[in-house]
Amino acid sequence: MCGIVGLFLKDKSLELQLGALLTDMLVTMTDRGPDSAGIAIYGDRASAGAKLTVQSDQADADFDTLAADLGRALGVEISMRRKDTHAVLELPASKVAEARAKLAELRPGMRVMSDGATIEIYKEVGLPKDVAQRFALSAMTGTHGIGHTRMATESAVTTQGAHPFSTGADQCLVHNGSLSNHNNWRRRLRREGIRIDSMNDTEVGAAYLTWKMREGASLGEALEGALDDLDGFFTFVVGTRDGFGVVRDPIACKPAVMAETDQYVAFGSEYRALVNLPGIETARVWEPEPATVYFWSH
Amino acid sequence: MQSIDLSTTPLREMNATLQAQKDQTNATHWEIHNPRGAHAIAVGLDAPIEVTVRGSTGYYCAGMNKQATVHVTGSVGPGVAENMMSGTVIIDGDASQYAGATGRGGLLVIKGNAASRCGISMKGIDIVVQGNIGHMSAFMGQAGNLVVCGDAGDALGDSLYEARLFVRGTVKSLGADCIEKEMRPEHLEILRDLLARAGIDATPEEFRRYGSARKLYNFDIDNAAAY
């Protein structure tokens, strides 16, 4: 069991409330996933071009001179915002790959959560309300966001095993279920040059979509491919820089409820997660069909 | 009319209050407000009371119901009226997966659509769905009637025993050992009665009947190679 929430805004006037709305949805899903929680939020575009969200278990030591050290190594100016165990580094988009390599040398204990023009990912072990508080999620703003509360079945309860997973620029995926052919796909995707950091099944799902989109597929086409190629139980919710997608496996035993109004498209593992959204009383509320791809874009 | 507001009354207290009603209670009408998707609302009732839930519920609404009439004005999550014994459960909106699962008696009416596994392992319950139902519905159904005014999804009636299935629209596919059967006068009578009790205006003659081919009841040595 896990909990998923997602909110894709159509009405710009709600963007200031995105973090608050998502946090409320996330905390409601605590009893579906009390061991860890995470959120991917698509906020302001990085003025330097790209953002790297990084995480460290020794944040004080690792973050102290991080921006200066990395800037010196790359020969560019880098800015940093710290949030608890996470920090967001802003740098030119052309330097992202090099920055990842340098970070592995400069701070071997640090992990990169995501990179992209707008995405930031925050995730930690602990109750969703505590995770939300540590990162001040409710104050965040943006166009869309996806959250996850985890009850681990397939790999360890660690920061690295928490969702969302990001395997490509501005991409993220959260998952309720378990994949059964992920080891084989992990090998195949690594051979294709796709970055996979953990032994977690969901990360392979994310990497699969990254690979499909790298090969030219749209988000919708990549999700169609997942239905053919991934074996197991899944309800996936996926974000890209301007898109938001949902797909459930053909058996569809992992729950899902969606709501749409003129202002937003929302996803919840249960209807409970949606009850505080504005206008939910008159929203179109439905259960996404099995083996059917849904996606929206700005 | 008694009223319980779930925004101020704890769920367990609400259920305990309803479960404490006796056959001869004077408090026969109850309204539950602000369900807000909560789980296990109005479960385990055992008195001839009428409960109206104003809004939508989460998992297992009206589970194990006996005698009571539970009416939900919104939609319900998975497992509505699971293992119902008797009484009536009416859902104005949609129902999520395994509605009426393992039900032994009573009537479940869903005015919207029901998702997958509707009536799975039904054992005597009657289920009437005004809209469509999802895949694997009535899987291993043993007794009772499932009436679908819309369409049925894949693998309807897989491994069916003696439950009767009536579908007015299309059936995407039939499950193993489920076949279309002749609609005889006694079946039209059952259907007419169920539609009337569900308050649904439909003509019994427009439905088709499906049931078990009874080929899976016993192990057949000629099938050994299939395992």
What does this entry look like structurally?
The complex is a heterodimer of chains A (298) and B (227). Chain A is an alpha+beta fold and 298 residues long. Chain A has two domains: 2-44 and 122-297, 4-Layer Sandwich (Glutamine Phosphoribosylpyrophosphate, subunit 1, domain 1), CATH 3.60.20.10; 46-117, Alpha-Beta Plaits (2-Layer Sandwich), CATH 3.30.70.3400. Chain A contains eight helices and 15 strands. Chain A has helices at 18-28, 59-63, 66-74, 96-106, 128-134, 182-191, 201-214, 219-229; strands at residues 2-9, 36-42, 50-55, 79-83, 86-91, 111-116, 119-125, 144-150, 172-179, 232-239, 243-248, 257-260, 264-268, 284-286, 294-297. In chain A, strand 4 and strand 5 (86-91) form a beta hairpin. Chain B is built from two helices and eleven strands; from the N terminus they run βαβββββββββαβ. Chain B has helices at 11-19, 185-198; strands at residues 2-5, 29-33, 50-54, 69-72, 88-91, 107-110, 123-129, 143-148, 164-167, 178-181, 208-212. Classes of the chains: A alpha+beta (298), B alpha/beta (227). The interface between A and B is medium-sized, with 17 and 17 residues.
